[in-house]
């Protein structure tokens, strides 16, 4: 049996022009995508047990999805799962039974990439098909351990069905381009794509991608690029849709929420005021990470928003170091005084606010004196939520070329800071308080439900199914380092935050009635009778399937052509009549 043709599409960013269609207008037929053919190596040759690639029916296989990293990455994973499930693939939690592994990576730290690399090796040992996503392959697609594997870029997640199809048929496809409109970079794939929420009660909305900074240690910038924001109306529509599907909590996420809108002539407070208008009673909104320089510009407005009853009084502001010299080497574009100004102002104007922050231990050039300044900062503010990271040099970043702090010193500083963080209990003084909390998930040990109060502090409540998705009042009777425990107040009012029943776990959101009807009556297939692939054969010629979210503009095009033909006929008959007269 001859081996199937192995098609590899390398980084397509070079061939995506300013005329590339916008997400809302693009179709499934990709005119700009031209796979190139290379011979399959011996490791990829089909065995007698494998069916020929053109006999495989896409859309019936089981897919296991693993995501590492931030909430933005998790949102991308939810969108990819939703599109695949909507198309007919079965999303499974059992990696062993899956036909294909979709591995959605994080490039922030070495350990995360190590887990990603090990998962690829495990998939290959188990003879699983593999599709790679996330920031690692986007930033460095030509690493040796990624060779021959399919990759879906961080701005191409709306094409995951396409990539999975071809991978299952034995092809290797790489889509890594940027979405542009008249040469201007867009925020990414459209927001109304189908998705499967990991938690049906929580909607993660990416308000922008990329950032305006050039931090010397950051690898994510290589993957996500410069700032590109979604329009306010699209974000508000996404929030409305989420609440209509039973969501009671939305998270706004991006690489830097504070920079939102600077590329499209607006700003974060303007967006937030529009969003709070559509949040139903009993539902809440949580803001994502923002760097100090951009929040400084909007302190007054941000304080007002964080005092809103439907917005958590919580903000994640990474300081990374309390040494100005280290911050300068990091190219963080602020000084410690800026960070303190933000924190002090918000603490004064938003009483009880939770400030979370990040610190990197052992950045190149960090002296003992620099580190002690960081220790003093933590001692002063006693952050209830502190993300402590030992520095890891990421390949290709300027920091990786700097003089490194010895590993033993980095490890000791990380240990010292961790001990300081665990030396205080931020919630002891709250025992005895009566708090209103929103219940959204189950605890890791499955013994409690997890709720959050107005400051986004974690409160464990009794595991009563009637409480899930509800806002209730509790009495705090115990406090730990990272949580409080609350007992339900018997006479308290219970708010049902959702304006409709939440979707079932694993159910696909965002499906229109048109699509539901299409899936019940069969999909719109157009199979190419020829399985041969050449340089002149576009990817879409192997298989063309237009899903509803990829068909926008077809009706308009047909109408336009019809009107043109009608105009030609009218002019023709007018000319004939004029001649006869």
From TrEMBL:
Residues 428-490 form the TRAM domain. It is found in: Endoplasmic reticulum membrane; Membrane. Belongs to the methylthiotransferase family. CDKAL1 subfamily. One of its GO terms (molecular function) is metal ion binding. Pfam families: Radical_SAM (PF04055), TRAM (PF01938), UPF0004 (PF00919). InterPro entries: Elp3/MiaA/NifB-like_rSAM, Methylthiotransferase, Methylthiotransferase_CS, Methylthiotransferase_N, Methylthiotransferase_N_sf, MiaB-like_arc_euk, rSAM, rSAM_horseshoe. It comes from the Eukaryota. The keyword 4Fe-4S applies. This is tRNA-t(6)A37 methylthiotransferase. It catalyses: N(6)-L-threonylcarbamoyladenosine(37) in tRNA + (sulfur carrier)-SH + AH2 + 2 S-adenosyl-L-methionine = 2-methylsulfanyl-N(6)-L-threonylcarbamoyladenosine(37) in tRNA + (sulfur carrier)-H + 5'-deoxyadenosine + L-methionine + A + S-adenosyl-L-homocysteine + 2 H(+). Binds 1 or 2 [4Fe-4S] cluster. One cluster is coordinated with 3 cysteines and an exchangeable S-adenosyl-L-methionine. Its cofactor is [4Fe-4S] cluster. Residues 61-169 form the MTTase N-terminal domain. Keywords: 4Fe-4S, Endoplasmic reticulum, Iron, Iron-sulfur, Membrane, Metal-binding, S-adenosyl-L-methionine, Transferase, Transmembrane, Transmembrane helix, tRNA processing. Its EC number is 2.8.4.5.
